[in-house]
UniProtKB/TrEMBL annotation:
GO biological process: canonical Wnt signaling pathway
SMART domains for the chain: LY
Name of the protein this chain belongs to: YWTD domain-containing protein
InterPro entries: 6-blade_b-propeller_TolB-like, Cueball_EGF_LRP_Nidogen, LDLR_classB_rpt
Gene Ontology CC, one term: plasma membrane
Top-level division of the source organism's lineage: Eukaryota
C-alpha cells in the first residue's frame, strides 16, 4: 500500500524528555504518514496521556494527568487542527485520567483514572459524568494493583475492557471487562458483572479492540522477556478470551523491544497497528506484529497517546 494512502498521525508528547522538562510542557503533534514532517497543534499541556479523534464531529479529545496523586487531572477537546480548545472535565473533578476512548454509537467518552481508582464515562461535552468501576478508596497505599490505565469499548459485545497495570515491571497486571450497562441497583464498587479475563501480565497499559475480528490488543510496559511489547487475545461471542496455542501465555505477543510502550491505535481498514513509546518513537506494523517499522524517533520526545486522521 502506498504511504500516501495512509492516515496522518496525532501523538501526545508528555514533555518530560526535554532539556528543561516540566509538568506543563506537553504537546499534541501531527505527523505525516511517513513521520517526515511534524507540526505542533496544542502547546503547554499538563502531562497529556490519552487521545482519541471523533471523525463525526471533527474534534479530538485528550486527557491531562496533572500532577499525579493530586485531584487536578482534566479532559479537553479541540478541532483537529488544534483550534477551539474546550474543557470537557475541569481540573479538580478527577485525579489522574489516562487512556480514553469514544463509543461513537452513544457519543460517550470512557476513560480510566489511575490514582482515582476508577473507570468513568461521560458525554462528549462532559455532562453526565459517572463512575462505572471503583477499584478502591483513593489515598490507599499505591501498589498499582488498583490503578486503572487502559480502556476499550466494544458496543457489539455490550462490554468495556480496562487494564489494572500492577506494580512497575511486577508481572501482576490484569485486564478486566464488564457490561456497558451497570446491573440494576449496583454501584461502581459493588457490581457483579466484573470479570478478570487475563492476569499475571508484565504491566499492561493501553487497549484497543477490533470488533470485526473480536480481538483485543494492548501495549505492555513490563520487563523482559514479555514486557515492552504489543499483544493480543481473541475473544469468543461473550467477549471472553479464546484459548490459544500460539504462545506459552494465554495470549499472543506480537511485537517486542519497544521503549516503555504506551500509545496504541489500530488501523483495521489498512491492516496496520501504530504504537508510541516513552522513548520518543512511533512504530507501525501489520496486524500480526510483523513488518515492524520505526517511522519516527527523537530522544527529546516522550510519547503517550496516539490517534489517526
Amino acid at each position: 500500500m502506498s504511504p500516501l494512502s495512509r492516515p496522518r498521525i496525532l501523538v501526545l508528547d508528555i514533555g518530560l524528555s526535554r532539556d528543561t522538562p516540566d509538568s506543563c510542557s506537553g504537546e499534541i503533534l501531527e505527523f505525516t504518514p511517513d513521520g517526515a514532517n511534524q507540526r505542533v497543534l496544542v502547546h503547554k499541556q499538563a502531562l497529556p496521556d490519552g487521545l482519541v479523534v471523533d471523525v463525526v464531529r471533527q474534534r479530538m479529545y485528550w486527557t491531562c494527568m496533572g500532577l499525579p496523586g493530586n485531584p487536578d487531572g482534566a479532559l479537553y477537546s479541540a478541532n483537529i487542527d488544534g483550534a477551539d480548545i474546550q474543557t470537557v472535565v475541569a481540573p479538580g473533578v478527577v485525579n489522574t485520567p489516562k487512556q480514553l476512548t469514544l463509543d461513537t454509537e452513544s457519543a460517550k467518552l470512557y476513560f480510566c483514572d489511575r490514582e482515582g481508582l476508577c473507570v468513568y464515562r461521560c458525554n462528549v461535552d462532559g455532562s453526565d459524568l459517572e463512575a462505572l468501576i471503583a477499584t478502591g478508596e483513593p489515598g490507599s497505599p499505591p501498589d498499582g494493583m488498583t490503578f486503572c490505565v487502559g480502556i476499550a469499548v466494544a458496543p457489539k459485545l455490550g462490554k468495556f475492557y480496562w487494564t489494572q497495570k500492577g506494580p512497575s515491571k511486577g508481572n501482576r497486571g490484569r485486564i478486566f471487562c464488564a457490561n456497558i450497562s451497570t446491573p440494576t441497583g449496583q454501584s461502581a464498587a459493588s457490581r457483579s458483572d466484573i470479570r478478570c479475563i487475563l492476569n499475571d501480565l508484565p504491566e499492561p497499559i493501553d487497549l484497543e479492540i477490533d470488533e470485526a475480528s473480536s480481538t483485543l490488543y494492548w501495549t505492555d510496559r513490563g520487563e523482559l522477556p514479555w514486557g515492552n511489547s504489543l499483544s493480543r487475545v481473541r475473544l469468543d461471542e461473550s467477549g471472553l478470551p479464546l484459548p490459544t496455542t500460539a504462545s506459552p501465555q494465554k495470549y499472543e505477543v506480537l511485537a517486542r523491544h519497544f521503549s516503555e510502550a504506551i500509545g496504541l491505535k489500530l488501523d483495521s481498514e489498512r491492516g496496520e497497528i501504530y504504537v508510541a513509546d516513552l522513548g520518543g518513537s512511533i512504530y507501525r506494523c501489520d496486524m500480526d506484529g510483523k513488518q515492524k517499522l520505526k517511522i519516527y524517533s527523537e530522544d527529546s520526545r516522550a510519547f503517550t497517546g496516539i490517534a489517526l486522521l
